[in-house]
Design goal:
Blueprint (H helix, E strand, L loop, with lengths): L3 E7 L2 E8 L2 E4 H6 L8 E5 L5 E6 L4 H12 L8 H9 L1
Antiparallel strand pairs: 1-2, 2-3, 4-5
Length: 90
């Protein structure tokens, strides 16, 4: 099957989806993961779609919620991850 090329628009940019048979990659995924297309990866963004951090790897529920709270509650604005993580261990 030949390569297929599809596009979408994101923040006034055309983003390409490259497919070859059942596999492929998307330019948006490459940009948001800084080129590290690992599975799974969760990318945290601001409400204006500015990248905060890609977090690579599987996390069980409790550690995942700790990371999600750090970004979701805007704690990252006032505290480093290292300090936040240390405060959660107490």
């Amino acid at each position: 099957m030949p390569n297929k090329l599809k596009m979408l628009s994101f923040k006034d940019r055309l983003i390409r989806l490259y497919l070859k048979e059942k596999k492929g990659y998307h330019e948006l995924a490459v940009a948001l993961t800084n080129g590290n297309l690992s599975y799974p990866t969760v990318v945290y963004l601001t409400s204006k779609f500015e990248m905060l951090a890609p977090v690579v790897g599987y996390y069980p529920a409790a550690p995942f919620l700790t990371v999600a709270k750090y970004f979701g509650d805007d704690i990252y604005k006032d505290m480093t991850w290292k300090d936040y993580e240390a405060s959660q261990s107490k």
